[in-house]
Design goal:
By secondary structure, the protein is of the alpha/beta class. The chain folds into two domains: 173 residues, Carbamate kinase (3-Layer(aba) Sandwich); 152 residues, VC0802-like (2-Layer Sandwich). It is 33% helix and 25% strand. It has an eight-stranded mixed β-sheet with strand order 3-6-2-1-9-11-12-10, sandwiched between helices. A six-stranded antiparallel β-sheet has the order 14-15-13-16-18-17. β1, α1 and β2 form a beta-alpha-beta unit. The radius of gyration is 23 Å and the shape is globular. The relative contact order is 0.11. The structure holds adenosine-5'-diphosphate (ADP), aspartic acid (ASP) and magnesium ion. The site of adenosine-5'-diphosphate has 20 residues, from loops. Aspartic acid binds next to α6. This is Aspartokinase. It is an enzyme of class 2 (transferase). Belongs to the aspartokinase family. It holds the Pfam family ACT_9.
Length: 412
Amino acid sequence: MPVLVMKFGGTSVATLDRIKRAAKRVGLEVAKGYDVIVIVSAMSGKTNELVGWVNETSPLYDAREYDAVVSSGENVTAGLMALTLQEMGVPARSWQGWQVPVKTTDAHSAARIEEIPPENITEKFGEGMKVAVVAGFQGVSPEGRITTLGRGGSDTTAVAFAAAFDAERCDIYTDVDGVYTTDPRISPKARKLDKISFEEMLELASLGAKVLQTRSVELAMRYKVKLRVLSSFEEPSDEAGTLVCDEEETMENRPVSGIAYSRDEAKMTLISVADRPGIAAAIFGPLSEAGVNVDMIIQNIADEGRTDMTFSCPTDQVMRATKALQEAHDSGEINFRDLVADTDVCKISAVGIGMRSQSGVAATMFKTLSDEGINIKVIATSEIKISVLIDRKYLELAVQSLHDAFELETAG
Ligand code: ADP
Ligand code: ASP
Ligand code: MG
């Protein structure tokens, strides 16, 4: 039997009624003759609540226990989905990550899937089971501890199952009807894309467009998974949603295809560090060991042998970063006069494969922000993206004015 992977995000399983609705969709695919692997997220808001409980209990928590707590939301929805399907007369059972097993690295709270042996589930399909409901977002480490795959990780579970079972398609059901030129909740002018290239989706995701987890796009690209994003609230149709596919298959030929933002950025500056060979290694080594995801970096011009070093990282890692740098300072590895954290910033990015061949994107971006009176704090570029760090209060204004400036509301 051909296998289909269907993933339902938090809002699509937020209540028992919605689980029923999702289960009906699964039933339709079973009726078409598919063996279906359903990947479920926790009910919306549940994972945030669990993360909150962990932080309240232990601010610099043991990541293994964080995973034990935070993975539990998916267990509930997996069981409820299996029960709902059984009530409909569809042979189904639930699987937690460790039962499959979804084998991951031991990088707790940000583990990577290494292998999904298909035998256990395939055997059950052979015995007449029609739907395997798998708890997304979780796996098991080589030591046998429960791991999680980073926020939004159920998308990655879905794509990894599609690759492991050579699925005909991987459908990601969410609360919007596809991938848009920017977050439709921020810009009413956002336009739905029928197709988007893996490369652009990868950049948009890694720059904050949480509609797909970055790693899921990476995996889909590597294993050639047919990946579709669609709404669980609209009538089923074959043309629905957005197809994430190879570059050649996309139609758009404009310099910028989308605007992404990341709200939870922090800018940290080490004031007056010695400008000597090895200083960057001495700063960023301890940060990496502490698990801080450093993104943008700028080193100012040195004055009398001393310089300022600025970097950005997620807001919730500021405490870890401060601790790591203070310890490096106290042990004499680095020496700075002050450490300043600005937690009121956000990152706005313009993404497009057209940037490879069309110039002027940076100029348009900077002029647009300047016309709105928005000060740029840090800039970073790559072949197909330009990102800026700005004050968080300007997030909506910046996204909307850039969406206008790059004329993204008009059809391609
Ligand atoms: P789920 O719980 O189904 O995984 P998420 O909240 O993780 O859903 O992702 C869907 C959300 O992603 C949408 O509600 C939307 O606000 C946001 N989003 C951000 N950027 C985009 C974009 N470019 N296109 C579509 N949605 C986007
Ligand atoms: N429930 C997890 C989260 O909120 C995983 C997911 O929804 O993809 O991050
Ligand atoms: Mg998600």
